[in-house]
Amino acid sequence: MRPLNNEETTLVFSKLKNYIGSNIRALLERSDGLYCFRLHNGRIYYVKEDIMKFAATLPRENIISLGVCFGKITKGGKFLVHITALEFLHPYCQQNKIWLKESAEQNFMYGNHVYKSGLARISENTPKYAGAVVYSSKDIPLGFGVAAKATAECRHADPMDIVCFHQADIGEYIRNEDTLV
C-alpha cells in the first residue's frame, strides 16, 4: 500500500471533481478525522489516516483490503470509480443530481442508461457530460453516471432519448459480488 504519485492523484481528483466539484477537500478533511487515498494492487482505497499508519506496520502481502475501494486504475491509465464510493460521494454532490421515476429505478439498477421517460427531475444548470449522482424519487442514492444532455436540452428531448449514461449502480453489489473488493 503506497501513496498516490502526482499523475495518479491528478487522475483520481479530476474524476472525483466531475461528481463532487470542489468538495474534494471536505472529503479528505472530515470532522471525524483526516482521510487519504492509497494505491494497493491497482485499486484506490479511501482510508482514515490513523488506520493507514497502523497498516503500514504490516507486510504488504498480508493486506487484502484497507478502507473503502473508490475505484481502480485501468491498464490504459484511466480511473474507474466503483459503486463502493457512492456512500462517500453522494453527501458531497451539490450540483449535478438526477432523480428517477419509480418505474425507471429497476431499469437503472440492471445497468441500463436513464431515458427521458424515466427522468423525474434534474438539478438546474447540469452541463452536458458532467458526472451526476442518480437518486430514486425518495432521495435514496442509486448510483452515478454521466449526463448525456444538459438540463435545458432535457426539457425538449424525446421520451426515448438518453439523458444519463450509466456508470455504476447499487445493483452491482449483487451482479458483481465476486469481483468487488
From TrEMBL:
<comment type="similarity">
    <text>Belongs to the NIP7 family.</text>
</comment>
<dbReference type="GO" id="GO:0005730">
    <property type="term" value="C:nucleolus"/>
</dbReference>
<dbReference type="InterPro" id="IPR055359">
    <property type="entry name" value="Nip7_N_euk"/>
</dbReference>
<dbReference type="InterPro" id="IPR036974">
    <property type="entry name" value="PUA_sf"/>
</dbReference>
<dbReference type="Pfam" id="PF17833">
    <property type="entry name" value="pre-PUA_NIP7"/>
</dbReference>
<dbReference type="InterPro" id="IPR002478">
    <property type="entry name" value="PUA"/>
</dbReference>
<keyword id="KW-0690">Ribosome biogenesis</keyword>
<keyword id="KW-0539">Nucleus</keyword>
<dbReference type="GO" id="GO:0003723">
    <property type="term" value="F:RNA binding"/>
</dbReference>
<keyword id="KW-0694">RNA-binding</keyword>
<dbReference type="Pfam" id="PF03657">
    <property type="entry name" value="UPF0113"/>
</dbReference>
<dbReference type="GO" id="GO:0042255">
    <property type="term" value="P:ribosome assembly"/>
</dbReference>
<dbReference type="InterPro" id="IPR015947">
    <property type="entry name" value="PUA-like_sf"/>
</dbReference>
<feature type="domain" description="PUA">
    <location>
        <begin position="96"/>
        <end position="171"/>
    </location>
</feature>
<dbReference type="InterPro" id="IPR016686">
    <property type="entry name" value="Ribosomal_synth_fac_NIP7"/>
</dbReference>
<protein>
    <recommendedName>
        <fullName>60S ribosome subunit biogenesis protein NIP7 homolog</fullName>
    </recommendedName>
</protein>
<dbReference type="InterPro" id="IPR040598">
    <property type="entry name" value="NIP7_N"/>
</dbReference>
<comment type="subunit">
    <text>Interacts with pre-ribosome complex.</text>
</comment>
<comment type="function">
    <text>Required for proper 34S pre-rRNA processing and 60S ribosome subunit assembly.</text>
</comment>
<dbReference type="InterPro" id="IPR005155">
    <property type="entry name" value="UPF0113_PUA"/>
</dbReference>
